[in-house]
């Protein structure tokens, strides 16, 4: 009987005070035609049996900018049905995580209060999936008001709206009180060396983002042993060819233990969250920007957009490969330019061994470090355009190909000079000097970007807040959101102007490059792990600050591991094994 009572609960979608509590916001373009907005609004509110999402919606119209926002929430009944359809797992009273079913709801932990059975992040993810699942029907030929924007039966309507910029963004609303409590435990200065509140991060931001912070935290702690040994190496005067070999062997053992420890820790976390066997691709839809010709699905027989694999392969080999090769050649030329600058600085120091000429010895490397960062940023733009040009169908495929492109170029751009010095010139003194200057310069630049820029963003956010408040002041009093609290309306408008979090890819890429410096070359510069440790202690709190204060709240995503990044780190470890057993160095390495 308890399972049946949920169908009569929480029908007003409100808090105890009777006010509407939005969880997700859809922001339309100022140029969006009214008919397209009203049509999507009707779809959101329509029953599932009529092809809708059966969600509760309020309309917020900002007269100042002619923008329309839809504030969306859902009843407990609707969320439970969505969780069952999505096969979401929650902790069962038998101690295991099982798929939520309405009939068995009373046997799940927390089912005594169905209003709080799902976390807010889970509610928002369920609503987002329901919005994505609104499909075009057989009679829906095009978006109302846009005859040139065709719709195909069975395809997601919301993705079409996003790709054609009718809809600017969809974002979940922050929970101000929960966010403040999380921030007090996470990024405050007095918490710099405290454990991160991993479980609370997971409940607020979801598994994918939490796994990044868990990985960063474990990696930072694991840097302590090589950092301690690096300090010992730095202060001792023992000089031998075996000195670097011993450190390299230690790095191999350390990295193996670290990666295996992370695998175990990752399994423990995902098991406790119930996402250890999550298959995200099971619910994956074609990308919003995927294009092609109208064909038919060989399984369902329904019309859908198709794009031949041979065309994608042709674009990859005829365009992507030559462009990437050109970019790698440019990185090689920049390396040669660096050696020319360094040779010029060395000649000046030979002529006049003063303080000025001595300081000039480090200028070429510092300039080279800055150029590396600039080239990485430029290539990121190029790689994204190449990925768009290849026209991948799924978001996972798109992201994996983008990651491989970025890793290839960034690895070559950042490490080509180090490998050249270590294996071709085989000059230990030059390698140590170059690596120390390069690493320190990049860490300083990174700290400026990670620690200083967020505060500049916060200053900009205050200006955005003023603009948002002005917008709020001119909201029409006769809008349909009369049962939405004024403070909630203000928060919704403010968060619409916040920066969007683009995902964990750039954060993992930064850690990958840092891991390469420490793991592959710290035997030449023992203090590399010390610099990395100090950098990461600051980065954890800066990233936490940005997640809580700078960015819009991202939709939570389930994850069972760090995915492709685990395989990349393992590949880097195997490369070090080859380096250790290279033939003995020449005299310049003695």
UniProtKB/TrEMBL annotation:
GO cellular component, one term: plasma membrane
Segments traversing the membrane: 209-235, 241-259, 316-340, 355-382, 402-425, 511-534
A Pfam family recorded for this sequence: Anoctamin
Anoctamin transmembrane domain mapped to chain residues: 201-569
Subcellular location(s) of the protein: Membrane
Keywords of the record: Membrane, Transmembrane, Transmembrane helix
Membrane topology: Multi-pass membrane protein
Keyword RNA-binding: no
UniProt main location, coarse: membrane
MF (Gene Ontology): chloride channel activity
InterPro entries xref list: Anoctamin (IPR007632), Anoctamin_TM (IPR049452)
PANTHER family tied to this protein: ANOCTAMIN (PTHR12308:SF74)
Similarity comment text for this entry: Belongs to the anoctamin family.
Protein name listed in UniProt: Anoctamin
Lineage, opening ranks: Eukaryota, Metazoa, Spiralia, Lophotrochozoa, Mollusca
């Amino acid at each position: 009987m308890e399972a049946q009572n949920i169908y009569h609960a929480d029908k007003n979608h409100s808090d105890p005070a009777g006010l509407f509590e939005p969880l997700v916001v859809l922001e339309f373009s100022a140029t969006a035609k009214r008919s397209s907005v009203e049509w999507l609004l009707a779809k959101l509110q329509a029953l599932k049996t009529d092809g809708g999402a059966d969600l509760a919606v309020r309309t917020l119209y900002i007269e100042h900018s002619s923008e329309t926002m839809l504030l969306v929430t859902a009843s407990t009944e609707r969320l439970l049905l969505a969780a069952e359809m999505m096969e979401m797992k929650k902790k069962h009273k038998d101690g295991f995580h099982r798929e939520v079913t309405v009939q068995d709801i009373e046997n799940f932990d927390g089912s005594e209060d169905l209003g709080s059975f799902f976390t807010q992040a889970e509610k928002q993810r369920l609503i987002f999936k329901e919005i994505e699942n609104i499909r075009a029907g057989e009679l829906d030929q095009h978006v109302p008001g846009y005859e040139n924007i065709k719709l195909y039966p069975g395809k997601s309507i919301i993705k079409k709206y996003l790709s054609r910029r009718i809809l600017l963004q969809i974002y979940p609303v922050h929970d101000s009180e929960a966010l403040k409590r999380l921030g007090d435990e996470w990024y405050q200065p007095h918490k710099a060396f405290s454990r991160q509140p991993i479980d609370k991060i997971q409940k607020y931001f979801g598994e994918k983002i939490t796994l990044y912070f868990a990985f960063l935290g474990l990696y930072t702690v694991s840097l302590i042993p090589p950092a301690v040994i690096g300090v010992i190496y730095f202060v001792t005067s023992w000089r031998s060819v075996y000195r670097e070999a011993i450190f390299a062997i230690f790095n191999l053992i350390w990295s193996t233990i670290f990666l295996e420890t992370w695998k175990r820790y990752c399994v423990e976390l995902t098991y406790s969250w119930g996402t250890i066997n999550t298959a995200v691709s099971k619910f994956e839809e074609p990308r919003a920007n995927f294009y092609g010709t109208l064909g038919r699905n060989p399984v369902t027989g329904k019309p859908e957009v198709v794009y031949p694999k041979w065309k994608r392969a042709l674009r990859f080999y005829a365009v992507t490969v030559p462009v990437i090769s050109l970019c790698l050649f440019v990185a090689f030329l920049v390396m040669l330019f660096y050696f020319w600058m360094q040779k010029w600085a060395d000649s000046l120091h030979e002529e006049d061994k003063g303080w000025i000429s001595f300081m000039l010895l480090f200028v070429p490397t510092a300039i080279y470090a800055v150029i590396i960062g600039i080239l990485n940023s430029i290539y990121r733009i190029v790689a994204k355009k190449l990925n768009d040009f290849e026209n991948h169908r799924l978001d996972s495929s798109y992201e994996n190909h983008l990651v491989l492109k970025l890793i290839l170029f960034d690895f070559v751009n950042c490490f080509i000079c180090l490998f050249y010095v270590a294996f071709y010139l085989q000059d230990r003194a030059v390698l140590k000097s170059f690596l120390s200057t390069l690493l320190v310069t990049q860490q300083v630049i990174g700290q400026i970007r990670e620690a200083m820029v967020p505060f500049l963003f916060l200053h900009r956010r205050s200006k955005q807040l003023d603009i948002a408040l002005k917008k709020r002041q001119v909201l029409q009093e006769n809008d349909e959101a009369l049962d939405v609290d004024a403070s909630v309306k203000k928060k919704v408008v403010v968060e619409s102007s916040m920066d969007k979090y683009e995902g964990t890819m750039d954060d993992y890429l930064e850690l990958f490059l840092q891991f390469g410096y420490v793991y592959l070359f710290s035997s030449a510069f023992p203090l590399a792990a010390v610099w990395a440790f100090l950098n990461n202690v600051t980065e954890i709190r800066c990233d936490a600050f940005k997640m809580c204060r700078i960015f819009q709240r991202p939709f939570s995503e389930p994850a069972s591991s760090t995915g492709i990044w685990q395989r990349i780190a393992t590949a880097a470890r195997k490369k070090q094994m080859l380096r250790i057993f290279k033939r003995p160095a020449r005299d310049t390495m003695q």
